[in-house]
Design the sequence.
């Protein structure tokens, strides 16, 4: 049988995965290239592997939420991503949903709190 | 190679291993992106010191298995035959392999019986290789058909999921409407054997006797038979389709009922056409029998009468059979057991 820790780790991973798009979209109101976004999110305690982020950025671009541009004037060619108008709208709507969801889940979790807090 | 070159080489190999799995129009872009990413990760890892081969290795390990990274870029699971159809593929494959192997073996044995070959080892070798290559072909064709289905339905499937509604769920089949797999499988085996016999050994259907060949009375009019062999094969193919449809649906449904009634009707029409329309039976069978066996007058006239009536009898039997089959199908499709509760 899986250990408690393994189960918790697995479920946490799924939880985080669900919020990744939200995290990424929220930080792309200013243009960033992939690796700078990895570092930037890390500073804010959001861990995302480059191997996950890079394909994700591409997918979001394909959905029309991001637009990209190669920046070749620097030492290395970098692809910068930024929210498109569509992406901005989507982010605005998601944000509202997130706050609602957060309160709902918070309330549920607080219920549990009184039981376990004793 | 100095250390820097080794590092570059390793990076190139990694990037290549990823992008080769991607569509051509993405390769250049992803390649550039990954190269820059790896350099950035190296810089973060090494800071001001120069990177070593071990650093590159560590970074690549962090990025993960190339194939998996490529899969994330592609964002679709790729199947030759998807899980939703894999079970029926395996089942059909087993049937087709058994039937193809058996049919070819039977066909060869018939031809050996009619025309005994010389040289045991040569015969044995051609027998084994013919059966083997036939089965490989069968395997290939089934797989190709399923792969093509997968290729086109893989795209259609996504749309379908949105349109799905609980009312589309099939009813739990009542016991009468369930078709046991063994039923169509047995029919398929029989139909294929019939196909082989018709095409390879029509003489099998001749009046079989232990006398020499010139004393054999053909059941069919040879000229008509060869001319319309394709029609016989078409009706065999239709029968085969019905059985495959039964296997596919697994229960009597309205679509299965319509398919099987229409196809049955077609085969009945074909057989009536062959027997009555073009006269596939050998008209002179009884006369030929008379010259061989020297029948008594009574037997001769009785047999002649029967033989002349035979086409009509066959037509009547075919029509009766068709009606019985149709009623059975409709009954199994629409009959609901009385709810006892």
Sequence:
């Amino acid at each position: 049988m899986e250990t408690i820790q393994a189960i918790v780790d697995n479920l946490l991973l799924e939880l985080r995965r669900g919020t990744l798009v939200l995290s990424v979209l929220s930080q792309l109101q200013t243009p960033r290239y992939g690796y700078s976004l990895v570092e930037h999110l890390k500073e804010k305690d959001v861990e995302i592997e480059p191997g996950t982020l890079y394909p994700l950025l591409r997918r979001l671009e394909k959905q029309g939420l991001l637009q990209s541009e190669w920046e070749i004037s620097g030492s290395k060619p970098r692809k910068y991503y930024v929210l498109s108008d569509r992406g901005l709208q989507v982010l605005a709507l998601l944000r509202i949903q997130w706050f609602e969801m957060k309160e709902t889940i918070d309330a549920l979790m607080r219920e549990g709190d009184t039981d376990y807090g004793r | 190679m100095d250390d820097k070159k080794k590092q570059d080489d390793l990076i190139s190999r990694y990037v290549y291993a990823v992008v080769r799995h991607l569509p051509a129009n993405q390769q250049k872009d992803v390649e550039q992106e990954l190269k820059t990413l790896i350099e950035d990760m190296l810089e973060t890892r090494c800071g001001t010191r120069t990177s070593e081969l071990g650093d590159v290795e560590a970074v690549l390990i962090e990025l993960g298995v190339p194939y998996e990274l490529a899969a994330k870029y592609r964002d679709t699971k790729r199947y030759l035959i998807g899980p939703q159809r894999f079970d029926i593929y395996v089942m059909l494959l087993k049937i087709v392999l058994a039937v193809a192997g058996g049919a070819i073996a039977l066909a060869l044995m018939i031809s050996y019986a009619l025309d005994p070959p010389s040289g045991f080892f040569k015969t044995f070798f051609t027998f084994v290789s013919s059966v083997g290559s036939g089965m490989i072909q069968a395997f290939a064709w089934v797989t190709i058909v399923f792969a093509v289905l997968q290729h086109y339905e893989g795209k259609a499937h996504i749309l379908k999921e949105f349109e799905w509604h609980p009312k589309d769920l099939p009813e739990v089949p009542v016991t009468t409407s369930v078709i046991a797999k063994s039923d169509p499988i047995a029919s398929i085996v029989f139909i294929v054997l019939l196909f082989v016999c018709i095409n390879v050994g029509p003489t099998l259907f001749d009046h079989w006797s232990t006398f020499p060949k010139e004393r054999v009375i053909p059941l069919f009019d040879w000229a008509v038979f060869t001319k319309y062999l394709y029609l016989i094969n078409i009706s065999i193919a239709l029968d085969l389709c019905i059985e495959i449809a039964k296997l596919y649906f697994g229960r009597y449904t309205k679509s299965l009922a319509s398919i099987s009634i229409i196809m049955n009707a077609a085969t009945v029409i074909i057989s009536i056409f062959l027997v009555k329309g073009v006269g596939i039976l050998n008209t002179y069978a009884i006369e030929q029998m008379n010259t061989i066996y020297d029948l008594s007058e009574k037997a001769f006239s009785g047999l002649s009468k029967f033989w002349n009536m035979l086409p009509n009898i066959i037509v009547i039997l075919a029509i009766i059979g068709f009606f019985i089959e149709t009623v059975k199908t409709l009954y199994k499709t629409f009959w609901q057991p009385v709810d006892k509760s």
Observations:
- Residues 207-211 of chain B have pLDDT under 50 and may be disordered.
- DSSP finds twelve helices and no strands in chain B.
